[in-house]
Fold this sequence. Notes:
Layout: H1 3-17, E1 23-26, H2 32-40, E2 44-47, H3 60-79, E3 85-89, H4 95-104, E4 108-112, H5 116-119, H6 125-137, E5 138-143, H7 146-154, E6 162-164, E7 186-191, H8 200-210, E8 217-222, H9 228-237, E9 244-248, H10 255-259, E10 264-267, H11 278-285, E11 290-293, H12 298-301, E12 308-311, H13 316-328, H14 330-347, H15 350-372
Parallel strand pairs: 1-2, 3-4, 4-5, 5-6, 7-8, 7-10, 8-9, 10-11, 11-12
Helix pairs in contact: 1-15, 3-4, 8-13
Amino acid sequence: xxxxxxxxxxxxxxxxxxGLAPAIAMELSDRxxxxxxxxxxxxxxxxxxxRQAFLSILPQKVATALLRTRRIRFLxxxxxxxxxxxxxxxxxxxxxxxxxxxxxxxxxxxxHHGTLSWFAAQRxxxxxxxxxxxxxxxxxxxxxxxxxxxxxxxxxxxxxRSSVIPFCVDEQxxxxxxxxxxxxxxxxxxxxxxxxxxxxIELLNALSKLAPRHPKLRAMFIGDGPTRxxxxxxxxRLGLREIVECKGKVDHRAVPALVRxxxxxxxxxxxxxxxYPLCLLEGMALGLPAIGTRWSGxxxxxxxxVSGIIVEPRDEGGLxxxxxxxxxxxxxxxxxxxxxxxxxxxxxxxxxxxxxxxxLYREAMSSRVRVTSHHIRIRPPRKLS
Length: 385
């Protein structure tokens, strides 16, 4: 799963606790983890029509038109039994959803999981049309931090119809302080897919400098991906095999127990698509102070010098100093641990974020009632989705 699916699962779980009836519609190809976790939590998941084999024999434009028609019909029928469409957009996407919502007469809320500048290279005429429709029909368009929202506003989204709501961590899954280690080691946890730009290599270089001075230092990498071979080779070349443990792919529900064994959560990312990394929030919720880069929304997550330390992207020297500060200053480690946990509880829990979205849903439904009440009889809302 990516951060998008993780966020959706944590948000919908909190929405159910708040009495809402969320449902997820997405292509389930290669996303069976989402279906499994959602089903265990009683969350309905619908498989969006995909590009089936028979579509591949048709001309591309015909196949695309047919697929889009099927998806619009599918979402339209789904929306007839629900009250709100909440789009989780990566880039400028979900044209099918916007059209289905317009046909069904249902309000739309959009949460973006990428900045417009990151998506700029992929923008084409269809993306521009999709964004134009989004601006026309969405009740509110959400970004997780202010700088991303300002970029959205510069593209013509009015301040009155946009909002900042951060991503969240499920406080019931990621709760309580970090468990005291049974071993006399100082462990860092890096939870991220192994892809270029996440900072694994930079962290390994910093560890190679720190290890001779701090023999108790350890690191745990949780995640898998296309650069794992490169990372494993780097571990061997630097002689860090006894220090760094690669856990590989881990079920998200098992992550809290692993991360609790660490003292600090770290993500030295400079990945272009990075926006608001949940792994930092999850570690902080467990009482781990964080080390992150001055990148995208990370400065909004970490209160620099209070709940963690922010370093510059690709600054291996700064990363080395930040880690050493936590190792040598136990007082700062203790204070930052308490501050990290308090910061998540005050701003980033799934319950807080779910309540913020519920307010948007109700406002959107109320506005829809005011607009249409002179045309049709309005019944009390059945449920929010």
